[in-house]
Amino acid sequence: MNLFREAVVLFVSAVAPFDTTMASDLVSSAAYEEIAHHAVSVRFRSSCDESASMLETTLSEGAYLIISAADSAYLEYRKSGKSLIHLATGKVKCKQTEQRFSLESQRAMRAIDLALSRGESVNEYNALGITPLHSAALSGNENIVRHLLSRGASRETRTLGSFLVDEGQTPLDLALTIHEMNPALGHSEVIQVLRGEGP
After folding, report:
1. d(Cα 104, Cα 100) in Å, to the nearest integer?
2. Cβ 98 vs Cβ 48: under 8 Å
C-alpha cells in the first residue's frame, strides 16, 4: 500500500469515526513509524507558538487512534527491530513554551503507555545501545524522565556502546555530559529528577 493512500487513511480517521479493522489492514509497517511520529509530535510544525492548531490536534489524535488499532502493522514494525517506546522518548521540541512542552510531553507519555501495554520493556535497549530513559535524558525532557521512572525504568542501566554514546554510561551521566557541553539546552531539571531531587 502506498504512502499516499495511508496519508488519506490518517486524515479521514482524524476527522471522522473509522473502522479500526480498516486501519489495521491499510497501514503498512513502513508507514506505522511515520504515523507514530505524528501521534507524538506533528512534524510539519516549524514554530513553537503557544496554541496548538485544530489541524495539528486533529492529526495527532487521528494518528494515535491508528497506531492503537493497527496491530498487524505494529507487529511488523517490531520485527524490524524498532520500538514505539524509543520513538516516543526522544522528543524535546517546543520546550520554549510551557503549554506546548506540556502538550507534546502528554502525547509522548500516552505513546509510552501504549508501548508498555503491548509488551515492550521500559528498560529495553535499542540498536544504539540505550534504553528509553537514556533517550529521555539525552533529549532533556524531565516530564518523560519522571514518567518512565514511574513506570519502573531503572536509573542504573548503562549504555552498551555505539557511535552515539560510549559504553557504561547511566542516564544521569548522559544528562550531565550534555549539560556541561551546553547549559542552555535545559538539562538541569532532568539531572535533578535523575538524582531524586525536586518534584
Report:
1. 6
2. no
Q: Which of 82, 102, 132 is the last residue of a domain?
A: 82
pLDDT in tens, the chain (199 residues): 444 455 555 555 554 444 555 555 556 666 788 788 878 875 555 456 656 677 777 778 877 887 888 888 888 889 888 899 999 997 665 666 777 788 888 999 999 999 999 999 999 999 899 999 999 999 888 999 999 999 999 999 999 978 878 899 999 999 999 899 888 777 889 999 999 876 6
Domain that holds residue 197: 84-199
Residue 66: alpha-carbon gap to chain centroid: 16
Distance CA 46, CA 195 (A): 33
The residue among 153, 104, 103 whose CA lies nearest residue 131 is 153
- Domain match, 133 and 179 both: yes
Cα of first residue to Cα of last residue in the chain, in angstroms, is 47
121: CATH: 1.25.40.20
The CA distance from 131 to 144, in Å, is 13
